[in-house]
């Protein structure tokens, strides 16, 4: 059975699964708070991997790429709640509370785990809306988001500089970024946005930096990593082709032989 994602109201999402489920690459455009009701989420990002265990609250900053694998609990189910702290709601909150940010929040972890009983209780208060025992109105959604912001700032006051920084992503080092993110199978326009560039600017800088188009370079880089994993790590393509951004195994085998002139079993 595939994982089910249900939108309770426009910024509150409930996900459940009854067997191991691999998610697709996701671009995280807005900050969100999540709570693992049952099971585990293994999240893969540019800096490595993090495990979101049962009864854990996690804050995920915006503008990043994440891939997930969902593992049900021993009782047989996976449940995860997430509430989006969207830019519009944060702008309203900042204006009403006269909050301004002069310094950018320093680069840090891709996920922040919050051991906070108030935040856990906040998510437990949302469970009636999953069962539809209460109706989630737009006004209630706004109140819940405001409550989430209050609790998050209470738990981590310096998050003010992260939540209320409404500046556009700054232009970052393209070479370092691509070597960290080449395995994510997302549109080029998403990569451009994450590096602080327009699509045309990204393509221009990319060709200047790598001497190839993004499509060509990504394919070559992924195949090089695949060759390394097969030859030096004795891994099987079926175990890693999705992790390297290939959409299907047959396409990977064809591309590998086309580049190296041999099959994977001949390496």
Automatic annotation (TrEMBL):
It comes from Chitinophaga eiseniae. The lineage of its organism: Bacteria, Pseudomonadati, Bacteroidota, Chitinophagia, Chitinophagales. InterPro entries: AraC_XylS_family_regulators, ExsA-like_N, Homeodomain-like_sf, HTH-like, HTH_AraC. This is AraC-type DNA-binding protein. SUPFAM superfamilies: Homeodomain-like, Regulatory protein AraC. SMART domains: HTH_ARAC. One of its GO terms (molecular function) is DNA-binding transcription factor activity. The keyword DNA-binding applies. Pfam families: ExsA_N, HTH_18.
